[in-house]
Description:
By secondary structure, this protein is of the alpha+beta class.
Amino acid sequence: MEFLERCLLFLAIFMAFLCSSQGYVFYVGGRKGWSVNPSEEYNHWAERNRFQVNDTLVFKYEKGQNSVLVVSKEAYSNCNVESPIQKFADGNTEFKFDRSGPFFFIAGNADSCRKGQRLIVVVLALRKGPLAPTPAVPGKAPPPSPLSESPEGSTSSAPSPAPTPHAAAPATHVGLLVWFLAVGLGLSMVFGHGLSVVLGN
């Protein structure tokens, strides 16, 4: 019985770790994929979504006819395809975010890039835990929310909505729930067994 409990505890902790490290999967360009004339501008699409570490972008395009380059901010601005950070040409590129901050993607053809086949994604920083709300000071109005500048230069004070169901496959919140349940199960098994010994059960 003790061996079975230890196996279940190990399995629960392993599954919690596995699930908590997963992220969302975003399909760039939707049904049209990574193309010169997308149904929605890529940067507009990116502004509507929230990206986090461990999320994945999927670029679908015709192999041999197109490619995806990860480039610097300067290369993005100039559609410079000469010295990319990374180049993908497999037709079904999966790019997983391993850090927070901006990522710049362009087509491997400079002319396609100039026609709008480029994308900026800003990955949110990891949070260590929930933030406590700031108490309001009596007699003072709350400060206005800061304006953020979009890549096109327009400003917006409205936050971006959460990912739409057709744009991403959720996994992160389920993973956290499984992790908390597994830890709780493990603790109850450890302390429950310890309490039964103390109580003489």
